[in-house]
Amino acid sequence: MNRFLLPLGAFLLLAVVLAVGIWHSPQKGVIASPLLGRPAPQFSLPELNHPGRQLHSAQLKGRWYLFNVWGTWCTECRAEHAVLLKVQQAGVVPLIGLDWKDDDAQARDFLTQLGNPYQAVAVDASGRAAIEWGVYGAPETFLVNPQGIIVYKHVGALTDDTWTRDILPRVSAAAAGS
Amino acid sequence: MLPELGHFALILALLLAGLQAFFGIAGAALGRERWMAAVIPAVAGQAVMVATAVACLIAAFVGDDFSVSYVAENSNTALPLFYRVTALWGAHEGSLLLWILLLALWTLAVAVGSGRLPPHFAARVLGVLGVVSFGFLLFTLATSNPFVRLDPPAPDGGDLNPILQDPGLAVHPPVLYTGYVGFAVAFAFACAAMLEGRLDQQWARWTRPWTAVAWAFLTCGIAMGSFWAYYELGWGGFWFWDPVENASFMPWLVGTALLHSLAVTDKRGLFKSWTLLLAILAFSLSMLGTFLVRSGVLVSVHSFAADPMRGVFILVFLVIMIGGALALYAWRAPLLKSTAGFELGARESFLLFNNVLLVIAAATVFAGTLAPLISDALGLGTVSVGPPYFNPTFMMSTLPLLALLAVGIHASWKRGRLKDSARALLVTCLVAAVLGCGLVFGLFERGGLLASVGATLGLWIALSSLLDPIDRWRRGLSLPRAVLGMTVAHLGVALFVVALTTVQSFTVERDVALAAGASARVGDYEFRFDGVQPLDGPNYSALAATVVVTRHGSRVAVLRPQKRQYWVQRQLTSETAITMNRGNNLLLALGDNLGAGRWSLRVQIRPLVSLVWLAAFIMALGGALAASDRRYRAAQATQRALAGVAGEPAR
């Protein structure tokens, strides 16, 4: 094959991907996680707003929580922030943040400026915990049930839609059942 | 009336661009001299029409014509006159118009200089530029017309985005775009050479100055953008790897590779097909960047879907332009054979490595920038990759690049006799290491791996770059502008590396909460907060803090950071206050009212950060100097004479 065709081939491939993106706006946020239906990973990490204190995963057992991976460097997280604040106001399920590979001062600043939707924020400076949670990129959100099992995962910015369609029913159905 | 006139002028410009493209390319292909003769009037006419359209839009802004939708969205009666003019490029439609204007001006410049090119070749170059211009004009008219009217007119405008109300932003986009669009010229030269099926060293010599000028503009534009982000956004930092920045940085990286590859093609007639590919890539990335950023596509494919027409148009246009050029490349590049060879240690190999590493760096940035878009397109959700990805991957290709630069400067063309300069290399490297580590330790009283490596590499590059000019000077030889330009640009690189690694290593950032009269100590500096006063601007109200900065008891500056609320868009912006002291850049941003008279303040102390931007301007200066070398003009004059002689018998 003519090696001079390679650039054209690569470009056309990219064009096809973009075309797919335009024509067929797919369902968002459906990476099947191998962790779905499995226990959430254990962690013990420093808390962002209480220097010196640690947040243990054991403390979270026994109730529903949303585990949200974010960072101030992530533009999508900025976009997602308004939705997170709504989730907090709804008061249905607490948000636990994982501040991923971030600068602590900047993260605190971010939350003071835009509002803090989290009940607690764990600091994952090394990115170790994110690897254990199987995080691809920020933002990602996991719904964990009182038994500590991950029942739902959303990749990308949380939207009003995902919240009302995918997350809220799961939590309220469980609340009604119990 | 004026908006309709502008709209009409744009339509005429579109037709003229079509004529320019057709007569240029078909005329040269069929050898019709009359057709080719029509190209230059078409270029001139198009420039006049585009300028008319721009003038009409500016008039609409200045005259507060809120019956024009674009003006109503991006201006306001309270907006100062200066920003009413620069609001022209404050959003998508106007930015495209600016792009088209700059392309028309570049084309005009090529047309004026084309007397020096063989007529066939000049016609093809202008024809290709006509195709580019046609596509952009069609896109603007079909999907992003800035002259669309509102009925009924808006009573007042929605105002220019407050973040853009800043002198820095007034000049940044035109400079950046001049660089972007300038790569169209190299692209056109490449396409013309492929259409002719002939590419010689003379071709590289024609292309070099245009590329260098475009590159210099792009360098300045990026540096200005970074500086603007630093003092206006107030997030602390001057580079965020956000898609907008990356979109300008990728063409820069590939453009830098192109400059070096052109040097080899010019001097040795090698790397021909590679140079062509880089010329195509540099401009393709410029176009991709303009479109993706300006249409908001990079943030999410959703904004594509918001206006599917726009998205489809962009894609079809890119496929035609880039795909067409690459198809031409696949067809023609195999014909270009280089007969000359070179040895492993020769300058050619170093420039080859330079090219490979720069392209790898660009590919890394490309992957990181497009990953969110691709994952979204494939339905994997929207994600961001940030500095945690970019910083390490980018360093992996640039650190070896810098070391190769320090060594490669000494290599001679063709023959790999690095041994001759081995001693000089070793000595400069040792001196640089000792000086570099000493400097870092002496200035900051602590070491730092990154800063020491950076200072050593930077000084090594600086010393290496200076050896040849010093040698020439001692032997009483003249220093051609091209060599001078290269030296200056490489000194810029050296300074950049030193400054960047120092900033990264020794920046101090702290958030403090202070009541009036209280002070905080950060680094060597004492910051006394004297309270907050209200303040009114022409179209905003603000709160301004007064902070007295002292160092060891002596007063350094009084800083007044502000928080502004713009009346129309109700948006809050933070106006940072900056001062320089002993090479340190002190930046202060006013945060929130914490109650009980206490305010949060963000203090940043960045050593040498100003040098990062200065270094970029030095690089740009080097590019401009190199472009002004007499060689290019002299070479063009000989070529004209040759073309004249060759042209005689044909008539």
What does this structure look like?
- The complex is a heterodimer of chains A (178) and B (651).
- Chain A has a single domain (29-177), classed as Glutaredoxin.
- Chain A has five helices and seven strands, in the order αβββαβαβαββα.
- Chain A has helices at residues 6-23, 75-90, 104-114, 128-132, 160-177, and strands spanning 44-46, 54-56, 65-70, 95-100, 120-124, 140-144, 150-155.
- In chain A, the strands form two sheets. In chain A, strands 5-4-3-6-7 form a five-stranded mixed β-sheet. In chain A, strands 1-2 form a two-stranded antiparallel sheet.
- Chain B has four domains: 1-165, no CATH class; 168-402, no CATH class; 403-506, no CATH class; 508-609, Tick-borne Encephalitis virus Glycoprotein, domain 1 (Sandwich).
- Mean pLDDT of chain B is 86; it is low at 299-306 and 643-651.
- Chain B has 651 residues and is α+β, with helices and mostly antiparallel strands.
- In chain B, 66% of the residues lie in helices and 12% in strands.
- Chains A and B meet through helix 1, helix 2 and helix 3 of A and helix 11, helix 12, helix 13, helix 14 and strand 1 of B.
